Amino acid sequence: MVSTAWAAPPALDAAGGTTPPAITPAAALTTAGLVSIESDLQKADSTTGIITASGNVRIVYPDRRVVATARQAQYFSREGRVVLSGDVDVVQPDGSSLRAERVIVLLGSQRVVAEPRKGQQVISTLRLDGQP
User: Residues near 45 by Cβ (< 8 Å), separated by ≥ 6?
Assistant: First the structure.
């Protein structure tokens, strides 16, 4: 099991503003704080506060410069928790990535717990020098 920060804040450009994430045109449709979710099926349950996306899930989070893919994603709004499961890949433009079978994101503490498929390992690629 691996626990790490979700993502570094966006880089500052020469003018002191944030460098826009080079993700996809779909990211241009989002505004600050919003996340774009694409999937074969999405369900929201107002009673439990759980949103579930399943089948070819792709999540774009421009504020954190993150693109994640999985077979299923669930957002537990009352707990501030996101659970990605099934062939999870989390990628940032600087080359940092995380591959696991299940990834739990605790939004309040900006922590991530990654779990491998049975008999395998979690694979992380991180840029440690702070350079883009």
Answer: 51, 52
Collect all residues with Cβ–Cβ distance below 8 Å to 83 and sequence separation of at least 6. 73, 74, 76, 102, 103, 104, 105
Number of domains within the chain: 1
Q: Which residue in the block uniquely carries the two structure tokens 């020098």?
A: 129
Is position 8 within any domain?
yes
The residue segments making up the domain with residue 64 are 2-125
Which stretches of the chain drop beneath a pLDDT of 50?
A: 1-30
Domain-located, residue 132: no
pTM across the whole model: 0.72
Residue whose structure tokens are 């410069």 = 65
In a domain, 131, yes or no: no
| Predicted pLDDT at 132 | 58
Q: What is the mean pLDDT of the chain?
A: 80
Distance CA 132, CA 126 (A): 11
| Element (DSSP H or E) covering residue 95 | none
In this structure, is residue 130 part of a structural domain? Answer: no
CA angle 66, 84, 130 (to 5 degrees): 30
CATH number at residue 9: 2.60.450
